[in-house]
Every structure is written in C-alpha cells, then in structure tokens.
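1st attempt posting a full record on here, be nice pls
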Amino acid sequence: MSATALFGNYARSKLAFDHGEGVWLVTKDGRRFLDCGSGIAVNSLGHSHPHLVSALQEQAGKLWHVSNLHQTPEGERLAKRLSETTFADKVLFVNSGAEAMEAAIKCARRYHYDNGAPERFHIVTFEGAFHGRTLGTIAAGGQEKYLEGFGPKAPGFDQVPTGDLEALKAVIGPQTAALAIEPIQGEGGIREIPTEYLRALRKLCDENGILLIFDEIQTGVGRTGKLFAHQWSGVEPDIMAVAKGIGGGFPMGACLATEETAKALSPGTHGTTFGGNPLAMAVGNAVLDVVLGDGFLEDVQKKGLNLKQKLAGLVDSHPKVLEQVRGNGLMLGIKCVVPAAEYVAAAYDAGLLAVPAGDNVVRVMPPLTMTDDEIAIAVERLEQAAIAVEEKLVEGAAE
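the predicted structure (as tokens):
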C-alpha cells in the first residue's frame, strides 16, 4: 500500500507548505519559497492578503450556503461589477475553469438550438489549447495526452492549427456554433494570439452568424495588466469563461455573456449546486476591490515589463539553458533549451516556484502584488537555477 491515501493522478513535489505571506510560501521547517507560479495563476493577490482574509472571515460568520433557489445579493453585486467593466451583460457563477467552459459551450449550442438551428453544435478550437479536464473540455482542447484512455472523444469539436485562417475557413460550415480561443495559450506554452488574428476571428463570426468564446481562465483578472487579456486587442467575445484569479485562491469561476446569448440558459437548462455561494461571492468582490483600485492594473503593466526585460537579459546570458521569453504582463514564459522540468527543479532548489507548460516552456506567473524588489530576487534565483543547470551540463559533457 502506498504512503498516501490520495489518488496518484498528480506528480507532486516533495514540498508541503504551512502558510503564505504575500508572494512567499513557507514550509513547516521555515524554508521560504518565492511563489512565481501563484498556484497556476490562481493566487492573484498573493497569500493571506488582508482584504481577502477579512472578507472571507466576515462572510463565514454569517452564511456559507443557501443554494441558487434563492436570491444572492453579493452575487448580484459581483455580476454587476463584472458587467460594468466588460463586454458582458450577464454572469453565471460556477466553481472552476472547466465548469466555466462547459457553461460557455452549452450556452453557445443552446443559443443556436433556440434560434432554429439545432445542427449548429460544433465548436472550433485551436491546436495547443487547454480548456479543462472534463470529458467535454478535453475534447475541446483536443490534446491526445488528455484524451487517451477515456473512451471516444465527445463529438462536436473541430480543431485547426492556431494562426491558419484558411484552415479555419475550411472547417466552418452549417454545423458550426462557435469558435473558442485563449488570448494567450497558457498550458500550450505562453503563446500569444496576435491582435490581427483575434480581429479576423471576430469578423468570421459576424459574417457566419456564429459566436466567439474567449477562454480567459488563466489570462483574466489583471494577469496581463488589463482586467482581461482580450481588452488589449479591442476585440470583444460573445461569451467568456473566467476562473483562477477571480477567486484569489478561493474556488470560483464564471461564464460571462451578452444579453442575447445569455438568454439561451433559461431556467432548467443549466445549474450548479455550489456556484455563486456567499463565501465565493465575498472573496470575488474583495478581489475586484483591489484589482480595480486606482493604478493597480497600470502597476501590473509596469512590473510585467520590468520582469520581462530582466528575463530577456537572463536568456541572453544563458543560451545553453534558456532560449526565449514570451507573454504579457505577469503572465510570462521562458522557453528552455534543456528540458523545462530540469529548470523548474533547479528553480525549486534555488527557492523559487515556477510551473512547466507545453512547448518546453516554464511559466513565470507571480502574484500581481509582487514588488520590484521581489522581482529582482526572483530573477536572481532564476539565474542561480540557470547556473546550476549549466554546471550539470558541463559535468555531463566531462563524463
């Protein structure tokens, strides 16, 4: 029998943390790690942020759960704030990114069904995408490593190479309900989708009467220096999936949509037991208090540029280990020459947490509250990791 009673579906590190302080995570024996993974872009305001802690504690003393059979005033407030700062008119609260994408897919399909076109249920997605781990969202992502062993792929998903407009046009037909894309592919290797391409997608959707879905689960809530990454392009979707940073570490997600599109999910068509519960809504509002505060997003932009420039210098100094810096704001990636997992392990040894991604990339996604001094420490530790990998390369060559 194994030492743990947990399922073995995670390849966990040997680290176990006792508490967190801002951008730092601390083990029980007092070791401090600079968190440049943010729980995979989740801890948007770091650990134990006093405003979030206060909001959660206050709500916990009043009410935890009542279900969506009743009014949720704090949910109404959070939905109003999100609609006032985005393209959306309506918001559906859920518990995770995968649930947010499932809701987006169902909304798009039901929209066409309600408009007399039930044959329009196909969603076109793009190679390198990651949209979640449910049967529907692994089919949407289309990556074989996530599909293998789980039976036939759920129908209704067509995938095309990212950036190939002709391939996209060829697959669009009377069966197409929507296009779904991440403005920056996170799991796919911090690959930015050019503004021109997003504009072309919007144009194709308008010309063909289909919907545009943005997956902003990882890119949203200030991660790139705008509230949502698509706002850099000026292109607006019809539906958007949000999670991770919106809860600042508390499990929550949301599906945002225009008034016309949101009508598709009428009473009885979709639901969630815990989505929009009072605890999540209190934390979500607290996150927006900070992220929408004066100058916060502008500071993220400045810090992101500072970190990206420093990482570019790091790449230039260690060409045998590192190849390229990608991304925007505080959603950055370093493409590696050596296996990304080796560099992540060396970073752990140097006291920094980072997250591997596809295309041999290491994600660097610290809390948005990170200071310039902490950025300097992060780059110093990433350099220590690069030097350690170089030394191993020399030792290997000598053998």
